[in-house]
Amino acid sequence: MPIDRLDFDNLSENDLAELIVGQVPEGLRIDYKRDLYGNSDADKREVLKDISGFANAFGGHLIVGMEEQNGLATSIPGVANVNPDDVVLRLEQLARAGLEPRIQGLRIRAVPLSSGAYCLAPYPTKLASASSSERTKFKPILDS
Question: How does DSSP assign 17-45, residue by residue?
């Protein structure tokens, strides 16, 4: 099942498991990340690059806490020992401060797992402008 068809606000562990069963590959609209982005400048640049890349293209989903091999999700270990609200707030603040212009419609959800861990799902929506030449391009503004 394509993740785009799901109700983002009700995204569940079962929905994430279907990505494994359905062998949904990484691509233009989905990217799996095993580990949570860290706090180093390089990690911040990486998350901003990932979010702005989706926002500048077709929109899409980052699924943080999904193990992948050869572009296919293989398991859902999640991110353990974190306060999901704090992580969502940190990612939202980073996107607001680190991208120019601000992305309207960026949504981030913490999906609770039966193990007690969480998957994080930032969802930068597709830009609304009709053609790529008319669209605003989002770009990270952190120093390289």
Answer: HHHHHTTPBPSSSEEEESS---SSHHHHH
The encoded tokens of residue 107 equal: 């949504």
**How is residue 127 written in tokens?**
């830009």
Q: What is the pTM of this model?
A: 0.84
For 127-135, the CB contacts below 8 A with 24+ separation are 127/55, 127/56, 127/59, 135/56
Q: Encoding tokens for residue 39?
A: 């706090």
Structure token digits, residue 1: 């099942």
DSSP secondary-structure letter at 7?
-
Rounded distance between C-alpha atoms, residue 138 and residue 99, angstroms: 6
Least Cα distance to 104 among 39, 59, 47, 45 occurs for: 59
C-alpha to C-alpha distances, 139 to 9, 87, 134, nearest whole angstrom: 26, 22, 16
Q: Please give the C-alpha separations between residue 61 and each of 26, 65, 73, 82, 97, in angstroms, as whole numbers.
A: 10, 12, 13, 21, 20
pLDDT tens figures, 7-64: 778 889 999 999 999 999 998 889 999 999 999 999 999 999 999 888 888 788 899 9
